[in-house]
Amino acid sequence: MANHTDIDADELHALLSSQRTILVDVRNSDEVARGVIEGAMHLPMDVIPGMGNLLCEHHDTPLIFYCHSGVRSAHAAAFIAGMDRENVYNLRGGILAWANAGYTFVPNID
Q1: Residue 110 reports pLDDT greater than 70
Q2: Lowest mean pLDDT among 2-6, 94-98, 106-110
Q3: Fewer CB atoms near the end CB (10 Å): N or C, the chain?
Q4: Which domains does the chain carry?
Q5: Contact 36/42 with Cβ under 8 angstroms?
Q6: Pfam families from the entry (predicted)?
């Protein structure tokens, strides 16, 4: 069984800058209305189980989850990694850590 890896904001920034990734924001709609990390797709936490098979495709592409503080996204990452998906990451500290590291947001375009 695969495990997910917790990464910090600087590690996420480096991943986003260096290679193709799948970045998933699992926050609620009212939270993403305040802004998202550029390139993120919004999949609220409650839809993750139904998206499992789709998210398990492309094992070679890093799949990164984030939320407000890192708790919900850790659950999402553990769930998908439990489906034997490789290269699964969780942003430790969530979007709060991203902001505290000085990185910016973009408007949500959902």
Answers
A1: no
A2: 106-110
A3: N
A4: 5-100 (3.40.250.10)
A5: yes
A6: Rhodanese
